[in-house]
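Researcher: We're teaching a course module on how sequence relates to structure. For the next exercise, students receive a sequence and then see the predicted structure as tokens, so they can try to spot secondary structure elements on their own. Here is the exercise chain.
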Amino acid sequence: MYDAPPIVPALNAKIGLRDNIDLRLSFAQGYRAPALRELYFDFVDANHSILGNKDLKAETSNSVNAALSWRYGTPLRSTFTFSSFYNVFDNLIDYGVDANDASITRMMNVDKFKTTGVSFEQMFVYKQWQLNFGALYIGRYNRLSSENNLSREVPQFNWSPEANASLYYNWAKTKTTLALMYKYTGARPTWQFVNGAGSNEVKLAELSSFSWADITATKTLLNHITLQAGAKNIFDIRNVNNTSAGGGAHSTGGPTPIGYGRSYFLGISYQFIKNK
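Model: And here is the predicted structure for the students to work with:
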């Protein structure tokens, strides 16, 4: 359905400043065709009306990244990474409010979008334990910053925090791994027209913060069979409050759907291996 480019280039460089300190620089172009669920999947119940969009265009991007990593410690192995990034998207695929019905959320293309920010990640490994945690401060492009004659000055980026943590336990004797993953998404501000497009009066709205957690247990049997079970969205997040005034193509008032609620899963996989 989509005329994908034959080559999607990327350039990566690693500079060893010291034996345990590395600087990584990268530039890459990106291409993503819409997934089938983004094109055709509709989810409608008493609280949600989320529709696919068969007219979605493919998403392209350009990204620049820089990261500084420091490895240290024994027997407690640790790695600290500080990074920054800048991304530019064309036809970003995202959720938006239907222009004809504010009660419907639909997949759509955002003509131009940018993100930038800084982050840090810390990893500790001790025997069978591994702990990762980090934080991110991200700026998202505000399209209204390019508009003239607005009622007030609008910044180019809206900034919000995020944090994450994960804990792994590897029980080697039973070939079992337990994983607990947590993510905090801070309040996300956004600027919008108060009375819809064409108005020069703007206001600052906000999507409330929320927390998300998953837990997974993985066990290997006979070296070829893997069992996996767990729960996703432990906190049963479905909607978060949105103070948006409505009227804009990508905003609405009241709660915004975030997830389908808590779910549980059980899976089994078998890996075929041919010995030479």
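Model: If you want an answer key for the exercise: The longest strand covers residues 101-126. Residues 36-40 form the longest helix (5 residues).
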